[in-house]
Design goal:
- Its EC number is 1.1.1.329.
- The protein has 365 residues and is of the alpha/beta class.
- It has two domains: 179 residues, Alpha-Beta Complex (Quinone Oxidoreductase, Chain A, domain 1); 145 residues, NAD(P)-binding Rossmann-like Domain (Rossmann fold).
- The chain has 13 helices and 18 strands.
- The strands form four sheets. Strands 3, 5, 6, 9, 10, 17 and 18 form a seven-stranded mixed beta sheet that branches. A six-stranded parallel beta sheet has the order 13-12-11-14-15-16, with helices on both faces.
- α5 crosses α6.
- The radius of gyration is 20 Å and the shape is globular.
- The relative contact order is 0.15.
Length: 365
């Protein structure tokens, strides 16, 4: 089969021909119909976060059951079923896994992606290959039935919608809250805008680099009052003069109730944080390595809560699936780019550079 792979000693992706994986007794072989693209995996690849190379990339996938092992069949999985694959491997028995905090498991890793803990990871060793391929082998407990009214393309991106749901839940918002969303034109930002009405948010402030891309995203908010801040319009010195904080404080003199931050690098994370109201919350899911410019006493004086969260839980996924199945959530319009497997490298480059409005991108093997 064809697959998009990563090799030891290379920070590039490759299109290779590899064997179709052999499913074991507890496994399901999935015929991949759609696989999601995420630019963050390339940054993690460059940092050495992939422990098993070569590997097939891609932690987001949806498709149909091709083959089910005996244990998988005993749990009700049969060929032809429409499914989405949950990418998060974990032990399923520790205190975190049994209390809906499975992203904290010491075994936590993602298929086709990175491992996060220092512990030995036997599941990751077996199931490190991901979904940017024609077929994918996973243990049966990572499958979720995909409702008939949800496309395979959207099914492959449910993980991102669930991540956005987790960020919004973590913010503990009151009805009518004013929320700043940074990196609002990316995959996570657009998913958050789409979910905002379900959290009773009263006003959104969307922050991103490009005015053109912000104008495209703004329509996702529908009738929800929404302002936008384009970093390219703040002046060339905004990063060193707190230009973003100044602009946000002009829009919100009393401060924001929450910041949902997906900024991957640079000063926008902390400049947005400085626009919080007293007692407000910043939730970070962007992986930004930039250190804060203010001392801890600033947090104390403002009673700010800073919360990091790296992934969703399985219950978040099931909540998104219910919203989609009951048509309370419509999210097919978030899929803006589709490409065949042979063009995955070009699609990844487009996703990283974002030279045009791009929200969610999928590969159709």
């Amino acid at each position: 089969m064809q697959a998009v792979t990563a090799h030891a000693g290379s920070d590039q992706v490759h299109l290779d021909t590899v064997p179709i994986p052999e499913p074991g007794p507890q496994d399901v072989l999935v015929r991949v119909a759609a696989a999601g693209l995420a630019p963050g995996m390339l940054a993690l690849l460059a940092r050495g976060a992939f422990r098993h190379l070569p590997t097939v990339l891609g932690h987001e996938a949806a498709g149909t059951v091709a083959v089910a092992g005996p244990e998988a069949q005993a749990h009700g999985w049969t060929p032809g079923q429409r499914i989405r694959v949950h990418p998060q491997l974990n032990c399923r028995t520790c205190a975190a896994c049994t209390s809906d905090r499975d992203m904290l498991c010491a075994q936590q890793a993602m298929i086709g992606h990175a491992a996060f803990g220092p512990a030995p990871m036997p599941l990751y060793a077996r199931y490190h290959d991901g979904g940017l391929a024609e077929y994918l082998r996973v243990p049966h407990w990572l499958l979720d039935p995909l409702p008939d009214n949800v496309s395979f393309d959207l099914g492959a991106k449910i993980h991102d919608l669930a991540n956005a749901l987790r960020a919004l839940k973590t913010a503990a918002l009151r009805p009518g809250s004013t929320v700043i969303v940074t990196a609002a034109t990316g995959t996570m930002g657009t998913a958050t805008v789409k979910l905002a009405p379900h959290f009773g948010i009263g006003r959104l402030i969307l922050v991103a680099r490009s005015r053109e891309r912000l104008d495209a995203v703004r329509r996702l908010a529908g009738s929800l009052p929404t302002d936008t801040v384009a970093l390219e319009e703040l002046g060339t010195d905004w990063a060193t003069t707190s230009g973003l904080t100044t602009r946000l404080r002009h829009l919100l003199p009393q401060g924001a109730d929450a910041v949902i931050d997906y900024t991957p690098d640079g000063p926008a994370t902390w400049q947005a944080t400085a626009a919080l109201a007293t007692g407000a919350t910043m939730v970070h899911m962007g992986g930004n390595p930039t250190p804060p410019p203010f001392p801890a006493i600033t947090l104390m004086a403002n009673c700010w809560r800073l919360i990091g969260t790296r992934a969703c839980t399985r219950s978040d996924v099931h909540e998104i699936l219910r919203l989609l199945e009951t048509s309370l959530l419509h999210a097919e319009d978030l899929i803006t780019h589709r490409s065949p497997l042979t063009e995955a490298r070009t699609a990844l480059h487009l996703l990283r550079t974002r030279t045009e409005p791009l929200w969610m991108a999928v590969i159709n093997p």
